[in-house]
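ESCALATION

Customer reports they have been waiting on this structure for their group meeting. Please prioritize. Original submission:
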Amino acid sequence: MNPTDIASSVAPLTSSNLSLFHLFLHAHWVVETVMVGLLVCSVWVWAIAIDKSLLFSRLRRSADSFEEAFWSGQSLEELYKTLSAHPGHSTGIVFVAAMREWKRSIEGHARSFAGLQMRIGKVMDVAIAREVEHMERRLLVLATVGSAGPFIGLFGTVVGIMTSFQSIASSQNTSLAVVAPGIAESLFATAIGLVAAIPATIFYNKFASEANRQAQRLEGFADEFTAILSRQIDERG
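Update from on-call: job pushed to the front of the queue and completed.
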């Protein structure tokens, strides 16, 4: 866009000219691209936030239900038969993985009970790692939008201010009618960048903390279950 085009496109300054819709339609194409990209990122952030909120809520309820059944005195064999086909949640997956390795080793007449205990620990570690990876999936998107969003908006701000300066130079007029539209466009781009970045940062911190809390809960269960299996191994030994 050359200065002559910029000067000829400057309209009288009215409230309608400074409406958000008008600012978007009459912004420089680079600024429009920045705005559209940030709006898409904002929608993506909220979609991830809703998905993660439902996921962690479901995981908490499932873990509470499983632990209640686990510590109710129900036989581990019965619980394993119930969950073996469809564990359905993180704690159940860790439990089923450990019990499957236990049954394979016992049915195969394992000679080294120390090796059995080590294998069960490894199996649970792998299961926990996979579940944590599933819980942390797409959190990188939130971190990226949260950190890069303001800078992308700032890029749109710089382009908008450059447009304003070009309008001033071509029209040789420093009135608000020339300067305000470009500045308003630039500030609009910055605002959208913050609208995308602030929730992304908040959601990232929230879900990263929740994932860490769930990981600690899984590790605590794994330690307790390892102690139970260790006692049974000692009794068999």
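Sent to customer with the following note: Residues 30-236 form one domain.
Escalation resolved.
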